[in-house]
Amino acid sequence: MRLGAGRLCLVPVCPNSVRAAAEDRGAVLAEHDPTLVARAEQTQTAPPAARPAPPRVSLSMDGLLAHIHDVGWKELKAGCIYSTRTRVPRKRPDTVEIRAEHQRDVTALTTAERLGWPLGAEACRRGVPATTEVVVIGDGAHGIWNIASEHFPQATQMVAWDHASQ
Length: 166
Fold this sequence. Notes:
The protein has six helices and five strands; from the N terminus they run αααβββαβαβα. By secondary structure, it is α/β, with parallel strands linked by helices. 22% of the residues are buried. The mean pLDDT is 79.
């Protein structure tokens, strides 16, 4: 473990594990069809759903600083679309666990406004417009709420707990 990685996340992580995880997520992100996003943005129409709509979908969005080799620090916009499942654990029957399922990440070195198109296109592919309940979770930044209003007008908008408690 490198000293910097442990100081950053307070958890010892092997650099090879980090690299393997990043490569796996990168492969998933690379399969996202950029022509689908370009067509949706150009025509202002949603792509067709590729699967039936789940009853509830959550979307989380945020920005983070990433050091890009030979470029420097840039803000990376990230969004995640997922559904949740609740269960009562056997070892702690007095509690309820909420687990994210069927996660799909969308990231881009772009403005918050431009993140809305790939996130919206992926949400449409997953049947979100026909979903009964949509929740958008963000840090309170105006760009996130603008994306939510434009691309997910039916959504309930919530400030993430860690930001709201500050």
